[in-house]
Amino acid sequence: MSLAKSRCLGSWGASTIVCRCSTLEQIALAAGVSRRTFFRYYETKGDVMVERSDRFGELLLSELAKRPRAEPPLLAIRNALVPAVEAALAERDLVRYSIRLLRETSVLRRAIMERRNRLEERIAALMARRLGAARDDNTPMLLAFVTRALHDTAFNAWYDHETDDIAGLVDDLVGRLRAIVAAVPPAPPGRQRKAARKRTPERTS
Fold it and tell me: Where would a tag sit more exposed on the chain, N or C end, judged by fewer CB atoms within 10 A?
């Protein structure tokens, strides 16, 4: 990212865009950059929100990468989610504004969902490395989907309830997920053995 773009993204506070800036011209002025510089990177206010949303995804990916491989996957996801969501909520006004806009604006929702799909692919690749998964093992993709779903749900739950207990919020979501999975009857033994064979990592000689 160029220095100019970094300045566009980082020099204005969340309260500025939420409370005072209704146009890109106003955002550029608050950022202390020229209109031409700002419009070089952003065409709409929605573009700004998509860019900022990417930062929240990067926080999650970074926290996941820090988790020790000895941690079970769901515990690692939980332990990455808490600091990632807490860090994102340092910009509470921006998070609140983004969620409201996502719920109301289908065009912005589609744009952000496309970026989140890319994030999910990166999480799946990280999980595959973490698990040493074979190429035909769907576990990393499943874990990536669960990670992103918990991430999105955590922000929406925070928006609806405005709690400061992020660890408690995440633990509640993970607990609900565990209860849902626990209620599913086990697969027949033959199917379990077949699935276990597929999960065995490829060995190199």
Answer: C
Separation CA 95–CA 92 (nearest Å): 5
Tokens standing for residue 138: 């769907």
Q: Which residues contact 81 (CB under 8 A, 6 or more apart)?
A: 60, 63, 147, 150, 151, 154, 170
Tokens of 110: 């589609």
Query: Among 45-54, 128-137, 161-170, 188-197, which stretch is predicted with the lowest mean pLDDT?
Result: 188-197
Reported pTM: 0.75
Give residue 133's pLDDT.
Answer: 94
Q: Is the pLDDT of residue 8 over 70?
A: no
**On the CB side of 2, how many CA atoms lie within 13 Å of its CA?**
7
In the chain, the N- to C-terminal Cα span, in Å, equals: 42
Is 161 within 8 Å of 167 (Cβ atoms)?
A: no
Q: In the chain, how long is the greatest CA-to-CA distance?
A: 66
> How do residues 150-197 score in pLDDT, each as one tens digit?
999 999 999 999 899 999 999 999 999 999 999 999 878 766 555 555
Alpha-helical (H) ranges within the chain are 3-10, 14-15, 24-31, 35-41, 45-66, 73-88, 92-104, 106-131, 139-161, 166-182, 189-199
Cα–Cα distance for residue pair 176/192, rounded to 1 Å: 24
